[in-house]
Every structure is written in structure tokens, then in C-alpha cells.
């Protein structure tokens, strides 16, 4: 059951400044920053803001609802929590608090390989849990993570394919950002690997150095092998080219996530909102298309659906709520997302999320 947003902030984006005021500067930069000159980070918002909806009039809205099915599980709205590393950076309860909020909101929570809480503990919260895999140099460790996720009851496996190494994120480089002592990569059983991002690197980000030493590029044969190994729905995250989307589906993926990693990998990459329609056309009805990078409101969820997505991933705003007021803050942010989406859906003349995909859109200048 979704919670109501309560008093205080009356839109999702208002939580951004609350979170910024409460977090140490270097942690805020880690959460908010992008790669390079942050061109793609800015482009994600600009592209969504260019999408104007043409509402329909005089339709029957008496049975209006916001629910949708995601891999056989009913979600209260077409959204899931994106995989986000090291959530205990922004609040001591980290992933557990956000997973509990997602459970109450009726949407899936994606636990990251780089979670600061073990995936098994997150799954024990009892909501719909997906597991996100970063391909690792230690292939047996990757396989073990998949086995652990399935044993813990995760309902889907999301492999991120756009991080063979971490792009230069200049805010983190300038800050020589290091994960603090109370935070670790809790899914790693090896203590040195778990603590890797805490090892300071002069003139660089410790997180980037840890990633370079730990992560591996992911190839098409790797996807085929992962599809054979995994018994749960497989989602491929980090797709922008429709040719890659079509090939992933042909090799057995159940879904793709149109994502530029929130502007945190290739700076200058196309905005996700400018890529999703072509991906939808390439995938057709053969798989699910999820949208990631830049979602900041319920209206943005509507925009993503009209562009061809089936659902979205909510990233940074979930952390804003967690940083602002822990679990209660996350509840309020997700409640606001639902309230904003329900209003946009109805005012656009759509009785349900599927109808949003039939709307006409107009793309203007920002």
C-alpha cells in the first residue's frame, strides 16, 4: 500500500535540496555528479523536458488505475528502484530502509552488486527484489552472486553492461573520494574486496580504482552464458543502440533498460529519452523496455511511457528521500511519485498505464 506524501515537501524535486543540505559535500558529489563535463547528465533532463503530452478528452476514467505487471508480479505503478551502490553513504539504514519503502510502495527494489547491505538481508525485507550484477573479473564470483540471488528469492536478474570500468567523474577525482569506514561492498565475501573502495588513491577516486580492479567488460557470449545459468527473468541494463536491444532480446534477455547510467559513463552519449523510442521499435512486443536516467517526477514516468517504455527505474530521487529522512523520507518520495503519476495519467485522459503509450507527443525546445 502506497503511503501518502504527508506535510512538507510537495514534489519529488523538492527533496533534492533537502538531501544536498544534509549530506557531506563529497557524498553529495558522488550521488549527484556525472562523468566528464556532465554533458549527458544535463541532456537527460533537457530531453525529458522537451516531451510535451497531447491529452485526450472525454474518455471513461471511472476505472482508472496505475498498476502494471513486471515479469509476472503486479506493481502499484510502472516503476522500480534502480540499482544504487553504497546506500549507507546517505543514511545508516541504507538499502534496508529503501527496500522497506519500496515494499510499501508496491514496486520492486533492485539490490546492487555494490550494495552496502548483503543481498540476502535485503531480500528478507519481503518485497519484490531484483538483483543487479556487475560483471566481475573473477567469473566464479559473478556466478556465485547469481546463485546467491536466486537462492535468496530474487525475482529478476539485471546485468549492467556499460561499465567495463568507471568513467572519470571529475567531482570524485577532485575530492579524492573514498567510501568511509562504516560502509563496505557487503556482497563481497573477501574482506579486501569488500573494503576496496575505502583505500584512498591520491589524485583519483577510490571507487573508480576499485571498479577498475574488480569489474570486467561484458560480451555477447557472456550474455549467452548468463542466460543459460540464470533461471529467473534476465534484464540487460545500459542499452542505447536499438541494434543492441534487438540482439539482447534475440539471445534470450527478457528486457532491456535504456540507460546512459544517469550520465555517469560516456559523457556525450545520447539522452535516454532520445533513445527509447527506437529501442522500443527494435524490441517490439518480444521483450520489456525499461527506462532509466533522469526520472524526477510522476510526469516523467508518463513521458517515458509515451516514448515507448513499459516502466522506469527511479534512482537519485530515492536517495534524496533516504538522505532527507531515512525510511520515512523514502516513503514520502515514493508516495509523491505515485501521486504525481496518478494525476498526470488522469489529466491526460488515460485510464491506465497502457493507455499512455497511445498518446501523441510533441517534442519542442527547452
TrEMBL record:
Signal peptide: none annotated. The keyword Flavoprotein applies. Pfam families: FMN_dh. InterPro entries: Aldolase_TIM, Alpha-hydoxy_acid_DH_FMN, FMN-dep_DH, FMN_HAD, FMN_hydac_DH_AS. Residues 4-366 form the FMN hydroxy acid dehydrogenase domain. PROSITE patterns: FMN_HYDROXY_ACID_DH_1 (PS00557), FMN_HYDROXY_ACID_DH_2 (PS51349). Keywords: Flavoprotein, FMN, Oxidoreductase. It comes from the Bacteria. The keyword Transport does not apply. Its cofactor is FMN. Belongs to the FMN-dependent alpha-hydroxy acid dehydrogenase family. This is Alpha-hydroxy-acid oxidizing protein. It comes from Catenulispora pinistramenti.
Amino acid at each position: 500500500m502506497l503511503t501518502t506524501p504527508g506535510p512538507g515537501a510537495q514534489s519529488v524535486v523538492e527533496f533534492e535540496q533537502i538531501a544536498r543540505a544534509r549530506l557531506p559535500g563529497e557524498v553529495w558529489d558522488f550521488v549527484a555528479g556525472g562523468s566528464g563535463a556532465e554533458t549527458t547528465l544535463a541532456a537527460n533532463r533537457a530531453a525529458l523536458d522537451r516531451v510535451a503530452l497531447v491529452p485526450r478528452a472525454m474518455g471513461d476514467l471511472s476505472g482508472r488505475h496505475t498498476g502494471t505487471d513486471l515479469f509476472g508480479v503486479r506493481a502499484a505503478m510502472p516503476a522500480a528502484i534502480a540499482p544504487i551502490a553504497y546506500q549507507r553513504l546517505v543514511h545508516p539504514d541504507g538499502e534496508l530502509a529503501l527496500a522497506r519503502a519500496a515494499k510499501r510502495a508496491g514496486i520492486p527494489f533492485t539490490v546492487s552488486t555494490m550494495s552496502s547491505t548483503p543481498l540476502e538481508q535485503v531480500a528478507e525485507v519481503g518485497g519484490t527484489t531484483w538483483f543487479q550484477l556487475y560483471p566481475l573479473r573473477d567469473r566464479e564470483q559473478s556466478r556465485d552472486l547469481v546463485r546467491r540471488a536466486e537462492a535468496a528469492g530474487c525475482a529478476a536478474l539485471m546485468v549492467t553492461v556499460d561499465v567495463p570500468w568507471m568513467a572519470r567523474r571529475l567531482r570524485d577525482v577532485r575530492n579524492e573520494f573514498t567510501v568511509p569506514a562504516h560502509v563496505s561492498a557487503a556482497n563481497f565475501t573477501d574482506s579486501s574486496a569488500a573494503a576496496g573502495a575505502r583505500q584512498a588513491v591520491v589524485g583519483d577516486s577510490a571507487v573508480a580504482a576499485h571498479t577498475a580492479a574488480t569489474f570486467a567488460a561484458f560480451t555477447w557470449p557472456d550474455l549467452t552464458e548468463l542466460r543459460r545459468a540464470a533461471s529467473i527473468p534476465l534484464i540487460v541494463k545500459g542499452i542505447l543502440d536499438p541494434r543492441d536491444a534487438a540482439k539482447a532480446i534475440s539471445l534470450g534477455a527478457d528486457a532491456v533498460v535504456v540507460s546512459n547510467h544517469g550520465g555517469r559513463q560516456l559523457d556525450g552519449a545520447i539522452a535516454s529519452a532520445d533513445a527509447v523510442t527506437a529501442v522500443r521499435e527494435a524490441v517490439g512486443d518480444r521483450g520489456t523496455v525499461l527506462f532509466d536516467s533522469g526520472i524526477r517526477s510522476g510526469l516523467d514516468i508518463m513521458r517515458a511511457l509515451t516514448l515507448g517504455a513499459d516502466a522506469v527505474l527511479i534512482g537519485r530521487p530515492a536517495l534524496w528521500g533516504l538522505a532527507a529522512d531515512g525510511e520515512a523520507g523514502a516513503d514520502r518520495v515514493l508516495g509523491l511519485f505515485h501521486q504525481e503519476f496518478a494525476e498526470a495519467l488522469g489529466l491526460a485522459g488515460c485510464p491506465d498505464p497502457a493507455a499512455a503509450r497511445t498518446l501523441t507527443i510533441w517534442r519542442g525546445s527547452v
